[in-house]
Amino acid sequence: MGTWPKQVKYYPAVLLLLAVFQSFAQETSLAAPSQAISRNIKQSASLPPPNKIHFQRRAVIPTPALKAQQAKVAPSREITLPQANQTTTIPLNRHEKLLISKEKRYFDKSWNETTGLIDSVQGYSHTTMWDVASGVGGLLALEALGVNTQQQTDFRLEKMLKTLIKLPLYNQILPNRQYDTRTALPSGRMSNTPSNGNGWSALDLGRLYIWLEILKRHKPNLADNVEQLQSKWQLTRATKGGNLYGTKLTSTREYFRQEGRLGYLQYAATGFKLAGLNVDNAFKCNKLENVKLDDVSLLIDKGNLPFFTLDPYLLFAIEIGYQESCWDQLQQLYKLHKQQAQKTNKLTTYAEDSLSKSPWFLYNNIIFQGQAWLSVSHSGKPISYSQTFSNKAAFAMSVLFNEPYSEQLAQLVINNSARHSVIPTGLYADGKTNTAYNINTNSLILVSLWFKSRNRQAILLPITPIELQTETKTGTNTEIPKTSSRDTIKRERH
């Protein structure tokens, strides 16, 4: 299975200062979750196409079955969280500070003072709940990194929350999939109907609920606003049988179907878990398949539209904290991208991203319907002009892992951004820049820098900086922060 990243251990507070200096020199092994997975592989026959057509955040489409092995793995039923403590802050270098200034420019330019909402793409006055979460994260990061004042941040966040409280909800239940950032009214299909849109996305809501929980913990003064919002939204309606469900309204009927595939499902379900809902079935791994790509074992989802990108694994590690589990493939995906770079002599990072041309959004998949490194539209249609390097995914990996390869990823992001006033999305396969300047790119890089400045501790719980040190030099060993298991989510509402 290869050499895995080494675990970073955090000792009790009385030994904290000593541990900070020693942590980079430690060499303790981190058990690879995929090893446990591989021991439970059973050979199975070809699977028939799914009986039901499910849908994801942006599409509805059936898919053919794949030949593979079926993995039987015990579900990860609890989510462990990092414990709040003190930490040493890590100063950022001048290149990282320049990135922050570009990201601030995006947020300042795209913020709507009437609603407090932020445009999802520069010049495109619409947003989803996924993008709203990115807005919350970016605003918190700008303050934490010392760029915006507390007063400015609180003003913008409160304005946004008050708008969210008053949103016209889809059938008076949950937020619609899309809203106009200038008016806070539903946009997109069926937006001018009594239903207030065409349905909700459980994945988008799950991501937003993660950031609402982070917001409450970092900004207790805004907790009442968050709770008022949550009391109006009927999040339980987006669950069924311990799983996530979205709605899609068409001209003939409303569909209510399971939403989310491997990686995206577990990441979003964490938001539901934080809200106290029982979504245990979302974390089960008994219906996944094991395949190998370049001798790296990966799990893939058997459902339709099995979008498989880096995004949910990176977001989970930075926001919640990396944990060994049957579903989390962050280490394997990092190893795979590193091997791909060595083989092709070209840096690649496959993620979902906005596009500067039609179809305006791509899922750049590691594997999709049996094909490796395939870019598809929201409907699953292959696209020839793929984006092979995502700036946000590359930079997130660079703060999660610590070795020359990860440093190269960060440097390419810096180089890609040098001639732009805000951070561009990434690079197409032909080397041209994808200039779909968007909130998710600028937010994730901001939050990644915030994560790094916190000595690579997950964002969920607030910390108290105890001293400022010179920046630690990176070594040759790959490292990924290991979160504490002392604080476990146990709140559930059935």
Automatic annotation (TrEMBL):
Q: Which organism is it from?
A: Shewanella sairae
* Domain DUF3131 as annotated: residue spans: 105-454
Query: Domain of life here?
Result: Bacteria
Q: Report keywords, A-Z.
A: Signal
Write the signal peptide boundaries: 1-25
Q: What is this protein called?
A: DUF3131 domain-containing protein
Keyword Signal applies: yes
Q: Which residue stretches does the UniProt record annotate as biased composition, category Basic and acidic residues?
A: 484-494
Question: Compositionally biased, Polar residues: which spans?
Answer: 472-483
Q: Which InterPro entries match?
A: DUF3131 (IPR021478)
Q: Where is this region: Disordered?
A: 472-494
